[in-house]
Specification:
mainly beta; Thrombin, subunit H; single chain; 0% helix; globular
């Protein structure tokens, strides 16, 4: 499989909180899976995040604004990848 990642990732752990107001106010708590210089991946239960959506986030290594880049629906939940747009 061809690797599309532009930055090296490293494993990370801890809680992630993602909040947004569009289309309606919502807070999502999840588990931090890995981080890179400009992004992170989290596991969570919310299938309503959509690609392109900008959210506020906070996890043990950073906080700020991030754009949802992708979502993967799995049997046990959802994984989402984020690009940090402002710290």
């Amino acid at each position: 499989m061809h690797e599309k990642r532009r930055e090296a990732r490293r494993e990370a752990s801890g809680q992630v909180r993602v909040t947004f107001t569009d289309p309606e106010p919502l807070e999502i708590d999840g588990k931090l899976m890995d981080v890179s210089a400009n992004g992170f991946r989290m596991a969570h239960d919310c299938a309503s995040l959509r690609s392109g959506q900008v959210v506020e986030f906070a996890h043990p290594e950073a906080k700020g604004l991030a754009r949802v880049m992708w979502n993967r629906i799995l049997a046990g939940g959802v994984e989402s990848g984020f690009l940090v747009v402002m710290r």
